[in-house]
Structure formats: C-alpha cells, structure tokens
Amino acid sequence: MLMSVERLFTVRIKLIEQQVNLFGTGLTNLSPHAMTLLSGFVAVISVNIVIAFYIYMAMKEPSNMHQPDPKFLTHAKASVYQPTGEPMESLKKQE
Q1: Residues 52 and 68 sit within 8 Å (Cβ to Cβ)
Q2: Structure pTM?
Q3: Residues 59, 61, 62, 63: is their CA dihedral positive or negative?
Q4: I need a labelling partner for 59 at 20 to 30 A (CA). Which of 26, 34, 43, 49 fits?
Q5: Region 4-18: what's the mean pLDDT?
Q6: CB 11 within 8 A of CB 56
Q7: Pair 42, 19: CB distance under 8 Å
Q8: Average pLDDT for residues 62-66, to the nearest whole number?
Q9: What is the pLDDT of residues 34-51, one digit of tens each?
Q10: In angstroms, rounded to a whole number, what is the distance separating the alpha carbons of residues 4 and 11?
Q11: CA–CA distance from 70 to each of 73, 77, 83, 90 (Å)?
Q12: Inter-residue long-range contacts of 28-31, CB under 8 Å, 24+ positions, other chains counted
C-alpha cells in the first residue's frame, strides 16, 4: 500500500515538473488569452492522467481480498425487498 501511495505522489510531482518546464521554455511570451487556454488544457489533462492512474491502481487490487459485512448485507437485502412507505419493522424484530 505504501508503495502505491508513493507512486501516486511521484506522478503528481512529475506532472507539476513537466508543466513548469513547459512554461519555462519560452511559452511565457504568449498572449494572456492563449496562456489561459493552454494552462486550462494542461490542468485538465493532468487531472485526467491522475484519475486514470487511480483507476488503474484500483483495478490492480485483488477482488477476493474484500468481503462484505454480513450485517450490512442483511440490511441491504431487507431494504431492497421492503415495500416503499412502510417502516422496516420486520428487520427490527429480527435483531
């Protein structure tokens, strides 16, 4: 877990470094309108890269590692089969 958190922060830092390098190499002489658009596009792309990395890391997690709580499952099943408008008295009686 610790390694994945370190990787996520490393990715963020690398993205920020790339943005600084991009703007520091002569792009500062653009018009304010073009600079605003470019900054916005770079920010959106950077956020999407970080989100994609989070999704990738979540997909890599083993699915058999997480088991749902039996009490939560009981409440969830009872709420699904409960007709609307009535209190959940039958579930309270079971407890």
Answers
A1: no
A2: 0.44
A3: negative
A4: 43
A5: 76
A6: no
A7: yes
A8: 72
A9: 778 888 888 898 889 889
A10: 10
A11: 5, 11, 22, 17
A12: none
Residue 92 identity: K
* pLDDT on residue 1: 46
* 92 has a pLDDT exceeding 80: no
DSSP the chain: -HHHHHHHHHHHHHHHHHHHHHHHSSGGGS-HHHHHHHHHHHHHHHHHHHHHHHHHHHHHS-GGG----HHHHHHHHHHHHSPTTS--HHHHHH-
Tokens of 49: 């890269």
Contact call for residues 14 and 46 (beta carbons, < 8 A): no
The structure tokens listed for 68 are 């749902």
Q: What amino acid occupies position 11?
A: V
